[in-house]
Amino acid sequence: MENCIFCKIANGEIPSTKLYEDDDMVIIKDLNPQAKVHLLLIPKQHYANIMEMSDLQAATLARCVKKLSELADGFGLENGFRLVSNKGEHGCQSVQHLHIHILGGEQLADKMG
Ligand code: AMP
Ligand code: ZN
Predict the structure, then answer these.
(1) pTM for this predicted structure
(2) Contact 65, 87 (CB under 8 A)
(3) Each residue of 31-84: pLDDT tens digit?
(4) Residue 92 alpha carbon, nearest atom of ligand 1
(5) 42, 25 in Cβ contact below 8 A?
(6) CA 37 to ligand 2 centroid distance, Å
(7) The domain 5-104 belongs to what CATH superfamily?
(8) How far apart are CA 94 and CA 87, in angstroms?
(9) 46-66 b/e (C-beta count within 10 Å ≥ 16 → b)
(10) What residue segments make up the domains of the chain, in order of their start?
């Protein structure tokens, strides 16, 4: 996808701090962290949100999320974490390429929103 910042990060055109990469995804450090540990899980395939996601992409995303069970401790998330995916205007999605925020590394607020 042309002019998509996360496509460019995924294919290495734009530099990022990549903590993990496989055929399906990259996990990078968020540029503007909102918690002590703030990472982004970015599928390599471009789609804006779950409304645009195919069944195959959904299965791939599930695999990516499951992989976090192996990776979380190594990211300093052994005491827990929060996964968030913003969608659309009310969700304040700013990058139109689906991504999952991974937040933790400290006690998070018990309320969201
Ligand atoms: P959202 O508002 O849910 O679409 O989240 C987009 C996130 O991408 C924000 O938390 C930004 O800080 C982050 N972000 C934007 N550009 C970059 C970049 N070049 N490298 C790392 N994170 C970025
Ligand atoms: Zn993209």
Answers:
(1) 0.98
(2) no
(3) 999 999 999 999 999 999 999 999 999 999 999 999 999 999 999 999 999 999
(4) 2
(5) yes
(6) 23
(7) HIT-like (3.30.428.10)
(8) 9
(9) bbbbeeebeeebeebbeebee
(10) 5-104
